[in-house]
Design a protein that fits this description.
196 residues, 2 domains, elongated, mainly alpha
Length: 196
């Protein structure tokens, strides 16, 4: 635990933990930011390249209407942070905070989905449905129900399983089987299987 008031030592510890990415950094980060009662410690970490801090600053600033937060969100997404990729994709899809760019949104959703981000997987399902690509929609809903995913998975699983059955019923059998094989390969390749 970082001693209260020793923010420089805390920052050094957080940066060391961030390099090791063992999960303790996130807890220490929250604790330090709460005690500091401002974002200067978080900002220092973001400037040092710690992706979770970049995401936190970017997302928080954007929530408060400060479009400079987009800069930090992009940095976190470029480092491969799935939450940042997913949120940035949302913004590109909406076209409000970032310029509307459906191709970039889909690219970012794909990156997040490959890391098991359930929301990104389900959005890819929705985008496929809107394009009437039922085979691709079935693919993404299968991945989101069968893989080890984002914590919201528990909440969405029932909806996803129902959707998978519905889409599976309208696909020809050979398309359904091929899509299931493709989904299984994706899950295995990206180490997202529930029981590896």
């Amino acid at each position: 635990m970082i001693e209260e008031g020793d923010y420089e030592a805390g920052k050094r510890i957080l940066l060391q933990l961030a390099k090791g990415n063992d999960g303790r950094a996130d807890k220490e980060l929250e604790s330090a930011a709460e005690r500091r009662n401002d974002y200067s410690a978080l900002f220092d970490l973001a400037e040092a390249g710690y992706a979770p801090a970049q995401f936190e600053i970017g997302f928080t600033w954007l929530l408060h209407g400060d479009k400079d937060g987009l800069h930090y969100l992009i940095k976190a997404a470029n480092q491969g942070l799935a939450d940042a990729q997913d949120r940035l994709a949302d913004y590109y899809l909406e076209g409000k905070v970032a310029p509307a760019d459906q191709a970039e949104a889909k690219r970012l959703y794909m990156l997040a989905a490959a890391q098991g981000h359930h929301h990104a997987q389900f959005v890819l399902h929705d985008l496929s449905l809107k394009q009437k690509d039922y085979k691709e929609a079935y693919y993404w809903v299968r991945i989101s129900t069968e893989g080890r995913s984002y914590p919201m998975r528990i909440h969405w699983t029932g909806d996803c399983q129902g959707e998978a059955r519905r889409l599976g019923d309208i696909l020809p059998k050979r398309d359904k089987a091929a899509t299931e094989q493709k989904a299984a390969k994706f899950l295995e390749t990206n180490n997202l299987l529930t029981n590896p």
